[in-house]
């Protein structure tokens, strides 16, 4: 089972994450953060706002498996703020793409769908002031983000269906042995 109850919260279910997986996520967050900060050096006057939104885009990647919707919401909000008020960079969008895939993969079904809506709002918010020479670019990006989300979502749901089928088969085998 991917989730377990936290001992102090009977109603909350947290995903089981190994130390190795957590370290991998911290490395991804750190790598993305460094890459985004390096890209920020292209801004002639990077200010506190640019740096803060960069950190707000990178840091949630470290907890994208444990709190996928929250991490995605923070990442998406920071992306929109960064693009509309501070600096438009290319690497920033990949941070949000990773976040979108993660919410599709690791969130519960309802939260995952809310994550897709968040991703579409982020894409729309990003293109509020970001100009592009390709008129269809917002639709293309929305399509690509939907594919990323759908890849994670479908793989997870398929895995859940297989686990449920295996559990039914095991229960049926036990019932047949008892009779």
Structure description:
The chain has 179 residues and is mostly helical. The protein is 72% helix and 3% strand. The chain has six helices and two strands; from the N terminus they run ββαααααα. It has helices spanning 19-40, 48-58, 68-86, 91-106, 109-126, 137-178, and strands at residues 3-5, 13-15. Strands 1-2 form a two-stranded antiparallel sheet. β1 and β2 (13-15) form a beta hairpin. α1 runs antiparallel to α2 (48-58), α2 runs antiparallel to α3 and α5 packs antiparallel against α6. The longest helix is centred in the C-terminal third of the chain and has 42 residues, at 137-178. It is elongated and about 75 Å long. The two termini are 28 Å apart.
């Amino acid at each position: 089972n991917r989730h377990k109850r936290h001992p102090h919260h009977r109603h909350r279910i947290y995903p089981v994450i190994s130390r190795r997986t957590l370290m991998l996520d911290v490395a991804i967050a750190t790598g993305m953060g460094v890459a985004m900060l390096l890209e920020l050096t292209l801004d002639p006057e990077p200010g506190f706002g640019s740096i803060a939104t960069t950190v707000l885009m990178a840091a949630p990647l470290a907890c994208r498996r444990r709190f996928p919707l929250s991490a995605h919401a923070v990442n998406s909000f920071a992306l929109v703020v960064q693009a509309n008020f501070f600096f438009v960079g290319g690497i920033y969008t990949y941070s949000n793409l990773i976040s979108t895939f993660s919410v599709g993969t690791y969130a519960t079904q309802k939260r995952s769908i809310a994550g897709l809506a968040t991703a579409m709002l982020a894409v729309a918010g990003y293109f509020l002031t970001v100009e592009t020479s390709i008129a269809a670019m917002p639709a293309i990006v929305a399509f690509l983000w939907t594919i990323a989300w759908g890849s994670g979502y479908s793989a997870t749901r398929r895995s859940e269906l297989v686990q449920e089928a295996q559990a039914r088969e095991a229960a049926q085998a036990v019932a047949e042995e008892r009779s």
